[in-house]
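User: structure tokens for this one?
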Amino acid sequence: MILETYFEKVKLLESIFSSDERGVFCKPFNQNLFKNYDLESNFGEFFYSTSKKNVIRGMHFQTPPINQTKLIFVIKGKIIDVILDLRRSSLTYGQFVALEMTDDNKAIYIPTGFAHGFLSLQQNTIVGYFSSTPFYQQYDSGIKWDSFGYNWDVDKPIISKKDYNLINLDNFISPFD
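Assistant:
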């Protein structure tokens, strides 16, 4: 099932999920379902991150011509996932949505033109990412985590040097229409 979010093109997906005495089975991606809803289904890369509690990763994206659509899901743990609209022509430019996600049956579909980041709420949280294009350092970009009005509600966030030095939203010139 595909659910709407604040942004028309960002989708919350309910995946096939079951658990029993053996453990858990979860299928966050089904190409036929994505094609039926006209969502990008050609993913060029899969990766995951493991984060300590209070780690903020983000707000990341790749710029054209190697921009990315992403499918994000929690493999283990709990996060607040934040999506920021960077599309210049959008009425919601600069606005964001924050969604709590756990290692249940939810995934978030994030099309190109949005920055993505999250706060890890538990120790050793594992987040999986499908990406429509591979990572290219020269197109890698981001918006500084504390520059667009979202209250992360964490006293001592753990942030990489790279993320700490990203550009503020007010100084960003978006390459996305």
